[in-house]
Design goal:
The complex is a heterodimer of chains A (about 350) and B (about 80). By secondary structure, chain A is mainly alpha-helical. Chain A has 16 helices and no strands. Chain B is globular and about 30 Å long. The chains are: A mainly alpha (about 350), B alpha+beta (about 80). Chain B: This is Redox-active disulfide protein 2.
Chain lengths: ~350, ~80
């Protein structure tokens, strides 16, 4: 849900341009991408130290070099990753996930919902219809919550960015712990019998009979590629301001914040570093891609991995706008339980990884 | 024909509504376009992701902003 309304579903309709029209364009785009990616480092140094005449190893010089290095890097990575992810998403749809999860037992259902949450396309505007649609089809409340937690928490774009920027170990840690939090919080919330804390109209809507069946069309290959191109346009077009802000913050941390200070604030030895990371992260509304430059700078400055993961998960998985949307269907007590359970899970992950890594 | 656009009112839903109106204009026919932002109505129609579009009561797609050309093709079909 962190991808505020920038998702697109697979149900394509209508004619698409011929595959080779787009294919030819893509064949040119890929080498251009590789070439650009290869020269960013030198280009950033050229701009910072030659064109702008800054001195290397000074605060300002390093911050500016970071900015000119990270901006094209994050944008290029994001474009490629969003293309791949949106293409893959045309093979899954919320409808199919709902059918797979309906009338599942807690346990297996929670596990499946947490895994499905990684790749299923849906945006914050769809959270309410999706929530009701799941319950209406007989998906248990706890299983629905596992899905609602996993979908933003284990963000597919964040996963791709982590993999590209920090390697498979951190990507796997992020995914594994996110899935575990979604699984457990759904299990806990399911046990609490929260059905009566749904808003009244939701309870009415659940009782109302369904009107007819929804037909889903199978998209063609060119349709899938078209969706992926559209996804890149939508998402990159929408999140670039967040990325720029993220990179500015990252550049500031990279250039100006002393390592000793960061290691003390978000280091593994400080007991308060994990709750602090969560407390800073929750009100910070950003996008998965926008957090990456900050994460990059934090890790570079010696912040502990557990605290950094907790910060990232709080930003992506527990944002205030998302709570505002969920408030349409959930009564305050259920919202509070939801936030508390997820925040507790994030804290646990933070402490766990600070302790073992 | 009756063309219904479903969505809570986010940017994507508004774009789809505009595209649907543009498609109706291009078709030259006398079709009604209505916007439905009531969540209960969406739930009743089995909509899981927005924006969605239905023609004469039949849901054509969901979770996608279709272009005017795509919607025009659906109207003509």
């Amino acid at each position: 849900m962190s991808e505020a309304c920038a998702c697109s579903g697979p149900e394509a309709g209508g004619k698409r341009p011929a595959f080779f029209g787009r294919g030819g364009w893509l064949l040119l785009a890929l080498p251009a991408w590789v070439l650009l990616y290869a020269i960013i480092q030198r280009l950033s140094e050229l701009i910072a130290f030659r064109v702008l005449g800054l001195t290397p190893r000074t605060h300002l010089g390093e911050a500016v070099a970071f900015f000119f290095y990270d901006t094209p890097k994050v944008l290029l990575l994001l474009t490629l990753i969003v293309f791949i992810v949106t293409f893959l998403q045309t093979f899954v749809s919320p409808g199919r996930v709902r059918d797979a999860l309906s009338r599942r037992n807690p346990g297996l259902g929670n596990a499946m919902a947490s895994l499905f949450g990684i790749f299923t396309p849906f945006c914050s505007c769809s959270a309410v219809p999706l929530f009701i649609g799941f319950l209406k089809a007989g998906v248990p409340l706890g299983v629905t919550f596992s899905f609602l937690v996993a979908a933003p928490m284990v963000n597919e774009v964040a996963l791709g960015m982590l993999l590209a920027m920090f390697g498979w170990r951190i990507a796997l840690l992020y995914t594994g712990t996110g899935v575990a939090i979604a699984f457990l919080s759904g299990l806990v919330l399911g046990r609490m019998n929260m059905e009566r804390h749904l808003e009244g109209w939701v309870q009415d809507a659940l009782k109302a009979p369904a009107l007819g069946e929804v037909q889903e069309e199978r998209p063609t290959l060119s349709g899938r590629i078209g969706q992926a191109v559209q996804g890149v346009r939508d998402i990159v077009g929408k999140v670039w301001p967040y990325i720029l802000v993220g990179i500015l913050v990252g550049a500031f941390i990279h250039g100006f914040v002393p390592e000793a200070y960061m290691a003390g604030l978000l280091g593994r030895r400080s007991w308060y570093s994990v709750p602090l990371a969560v407390a800073i992260g929750v009100p910070l509304y950003s996008n998965a891609a926008g957090v990456m430059p900050i994460v990059e700078a934090l890790l570079g400055k010696g912040a502990a991995l557990g605290s950094t993961l907790a910060f990232m998960m709080a930003v992506i998985g527990l944002s205030l706008p998302e709570m505002v949307i969920l408030r349409r269907v959930l009564r305050p007590r259920l919202i509070a339980a939801f936030v508390a359970v997820v925040a507790f899970g994030i804290l646990l992950v933070g402490y766990l990884f600070n302790a073992i890594l | 024909m009756l063309i219904e656009v479903f969505g809570p009112g986010c940017a994507k839903c508004e774009t789809l509504l505009r595209n649907a109106k543009a498609a109706v204009e291009q078709s030259g026919g006398d079709h009604a376009v209505v916007k439905i932002s009531d969540y209960a109505a969406m739930a009743a129609r089995g909509i899981l992701s927005t924006p969605a579009l239905a023609i004469d009561g039949q849901l054509k797609f969901q979770g996608k902003v279709a272009s005017p050309t795509e919607i025009l093709d659906l109207i003509k079909a």
